[in-house]
Write a structure and sequence with these properties.
Elements (H helix, E strand, L loop, with lengths): L1 H39 L4 H12 L12 H45 L1
Length: 114
């Protein structure tokens, strides 16, 4: 029984590392490249970073106005990518929970058979 519980705990720890790494790298890449893209089109770096964060999270306060066509295009790309990254996070959490539930049910079936 103790060995089965240790296997479940090890599986839980291993199953969560990959989705967390993917989310961290995708969100940081989005912020870095989105901010640099908006910075190149003429915004200050702080405004570009703020605009990237508010656009990626679909908040859009409106305090930074994007006037040129490249800025608006990049804003659309950042918004679509931000929704995709948040969707991937939700999918990763759902996958993690389903794996843990399947492992726990598998081990509980094996324990009841003995």
């Amino acid at each position: 029984c103790l060995r089965v519980n240790k296997m479940i705990i090890d599986t839980k720890e291993k199953a969560w590392k990959r989705p967390l790494r993917i989310f961290a790298s995708a969100s940081s890449s989005l912020l870095v490249f989105g901010s640099l893209g908006l910075y190149v089109t003429g915004l200050s770096f702080c405004d570009a970073l703020w605009c990237c964060v508010t656009t990626a999270t679909c908040i859009g306060y409106g305090d930074v106005a994007l006037c040129t066509i490249p800025q608006r295009f990049l804003s659309g790309v950042i918004a679509i990518t931000g929704v995709a990254v948040l969707g991937c996070l939700a999918a990763a959490v759902a996958e993690y929970e389903s794996k843990i539930l399947s492992y726990e049910s598998l081990f509980s079936i094996k324990q009841t058979k003995k």
